[in-house]
Amino acid sequence: MTVKVAVIHYSSTGTVHALAQAVVEGAASTGAEVRLRRVAELAPDKAIDSNPRWRQHADATASLEEATLDDLAWADAYAFGTPSRFGAPAAQLKQFIDQASGLWQEGLLADKPVTVFTAAYNRHGGSEATILSLSNVFYHWGALIVPPGYTDPVVFAAGGNPYGTSSTGDSEDGPDPSTLAAARYQGERLARTTLRLRAGTLALATPDALDGADGELRANSAPSH
Q1: What is the pLDDT of residues 183-206, one digit of tens each?
Q2: How far is CA 70 from the centre of its chain?
Q3: Cα-Cα-Cα-Cα dihedral of 167, 118, 8, 188, to 10°?
Q4: What predicted TM-score, i.e. pTM, was given to this entire model?
């Protein structure tokens, strides 16, 4: 059995993109089929050109496919990445998510595992607030939030953020190795959780499983003597 994971992100200077690639590696290590997508850039060229690293990253990733609503419909699970913008997700990612109301109304986003990763310049630059803010969307979707939690030593090595992998600083070399390891683990955990969920759903869909569940329910509800 394989699952389909969409890793959808916005990155201006490349930090979140590096995390997204690590999440892809982690999910793919389980055998999952993974799509790496970037959301559309909304900033004008003047703003992008004002920061050489922003322009360099925009040009370097121009060939990477932009996320579409078809990617949301296709996937069994989602990983969303965004820089922290005043404790909230970047407008570029939020604009993409805001287009998904049709899928939400059809119930096509419900019951799918989802996880979030982020980056901020300062250590207390709003990483946790950004993840929690974006999670409000997933409550509305009825999605199943899958945080890394404190479930593996790599989370502690990367700073101990149980909400989602977060990179801090503004190094031209990108996230440090421990943070990338945490992102890989987060992608792997998302894919494995999705595998278990699908396996359980398929098992319950078989007649034998349903008969067994029904029998257990009758036994548990029968009066005792």
Answers
A1: 999 999 999 999 999 988 888 887
A2: 16
A3: 60
A4: 0.89
